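Inverse folding, one chain.
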């Protein structure tokens, strides 16, 4: 039980409405007039009228909700009866209210709220809307703290309490992760006052805007549904619906296995090529495969996209305690080791091929080089590894000698596999991805070989008619040109 300390005063949070005295509620006006110590959140704008004439009250600096709440609670702890007036309605300032309650309640300080006219209605009226169905309402501080917007691009959005130019710049950075720079947005200033102004600007030019204050708001009109993830889900659902595409309708998880593999490899090819436009296209095709499988699961009553997203979100948070839970982990190897420990604990109750082995869960369909490197990496994390690279290099020489002495196709196959496995281990020690390295080597070989074919063809010859010495000499020249 928290006992109220008589030496501590109360805190009253008063909503001033949009600004003019006629918009001030009677209760709010009385609370301001009777205030012993009055503070205005964010300071007043020129001409601010509390109903008792021009406001001459102390103005708080442009600080965030936590700092503002701490300032007010500190004043109350010293026995001052503090009245904090805020533009609009206290409910418009949820982050501030939460911070205030968390600080004041344990101290027994009573926090009372006096309602005012919300800033939302005057802003919407200034924009020409009586109401706006589906409106997403947030604050600049909440949105700017996120790397990506938490709403779909086809949703109308109203961002309140822009506060300052620095907040606006942080907000712009977040929004540009979802909207194009030429997307038109509206800035509303002093809504509900005689000085009310609305200005439409391109999102890319937003940070250059001036006259920003706590009463400024940003409006984002609904964008194109085609720009959002929800649009992709809707298209795929329609393709598989009763009036959809016959091919899409008959697909199953198993029938799409080859498509998923093909799109994954095409994405790798786009990455290797360095072609950003191709990467955008191939990642989109890969995403389509995920959404298709999710829609098939919905149609079959198995699971949905929400289950997929929720599962991976929770997994990432669980497996990164050094990011989300304050655990101290130093170095990438320790991070990976902790990941494996958490993953093993998660899988302890699951029936998996290989049981509790450190190697269990590695897909048998992985390309051989990638599978070998994964096995070796996991073995190394539990201590089964060479002490230094020289040990690996010596093992390569040993495997070469064994291959030279191999007899019969079965033994030659086995020794070749052992040599390849050891070469993959060398790649791991050199921090090189063996699969990528060989794929890049394949690409170089193809490029050089095709260049040889072109040169020979330009001279009226055929590659099969050339001597080994001639081909080797031409290969060296082509290689030199390609590397220059």
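Residues assigned per position:
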């Amino acid at each position: 039980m928290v006992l109220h300390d008589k030496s501590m005063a109360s805190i009253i949070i008063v909503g001033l409405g949009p600004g003019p005295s006629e918009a001030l509620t009677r209760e709010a006006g009385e609370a301001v007039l009777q205030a012993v110590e009055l503070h205005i959140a964010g300071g007043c704008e020129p001409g601010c009228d509390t109903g008792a004439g021009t406001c001459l009250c102390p103005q708080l600096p442009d600080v965030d909700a936590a700092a503002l709440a701490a300032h007010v609670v500190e004043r109350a702890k010293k026995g001052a009866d503090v009245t904090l007036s805020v533009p609009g309605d206290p409910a418009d300032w949820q982050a501030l209210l939460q911070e205030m309650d968390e600080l004041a309640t344990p101290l027994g300080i009573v926090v009372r709220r006096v309602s005012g006219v919300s800033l939302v209605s005057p802003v919407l009226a200034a924009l020409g809307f009586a109401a706006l169905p589906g409106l997403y309402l947030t604050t600049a501080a909440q949105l700017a703290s996120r790397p990506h917007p938490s709403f779909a691009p086809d949703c109308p959005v109203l961002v309140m309490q822009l506060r300052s130019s620095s907040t606006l710049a942080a907000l712009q950075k977040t929004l540009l992760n979802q909207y194009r720079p030429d997307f038109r947005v509206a800035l509303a200033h002093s809504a509900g006052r005689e000085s009310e102004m609305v200005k439409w600007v391109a999102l890319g030019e937003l940070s250059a805007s001036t006259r920003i204050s706590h009463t400024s708001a940003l409006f984002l009109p609904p964008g194109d549904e085609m720009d959002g993830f929800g649009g992709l889900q809707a298209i795929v659902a329609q393709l598989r619906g009763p009036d959809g595409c016959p091919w899409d309708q008959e697909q199953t998880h198993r029938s799409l296995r080859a498509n998923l593999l093909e799109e994954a490899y095409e994405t790798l090819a786009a990455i290797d090529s360095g072609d950003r436009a191709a990467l955008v296209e191939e990642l989109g095709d890969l995403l389509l495969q995920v959404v298709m499988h999710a829609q098939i699961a919905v149609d079959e009553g198995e699971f949905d996209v929400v289950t997929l997203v929720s599962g991976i979100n929770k997994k990432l948070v669980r497996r990164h305690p050094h990011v989300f839970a304050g655990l101290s982990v130093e170095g990438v190897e320790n991070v990976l080791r902790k990941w494996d420990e958490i993953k093993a604990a998660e899988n302890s109750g699951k029936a998996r091929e290989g049981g509790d082995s450190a190697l269990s869960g590695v897909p048998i369909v992985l390309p051989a080089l990638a599978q070998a490197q994964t096995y070796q990496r996991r073995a190394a994390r539990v201590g089964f590894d060479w002490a230094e690279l020289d040990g690996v290099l010596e093992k390569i020489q040993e495997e070469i000698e064994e291959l030279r002495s191999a007899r019969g196709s079965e033994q030659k196959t086995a020794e070749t596999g052992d040599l390849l496995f050891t070469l993959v281990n060398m790649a791991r020690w050199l921090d090189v991805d063996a699969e990528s390295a060989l794929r890049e080597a394949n690409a170089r070989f193809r490029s050089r070989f095709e260049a040889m074919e072109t040169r020979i063809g330009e001279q009226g010859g055929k590659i099969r008619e050339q001597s080994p010495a001639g081909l080797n000499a031409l290969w060296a020249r082509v290689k030199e040109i390609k590397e220059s």
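The longest helix spans residues 434-458. Residues 322 and 328 are 6 Å apart (CA to CA).
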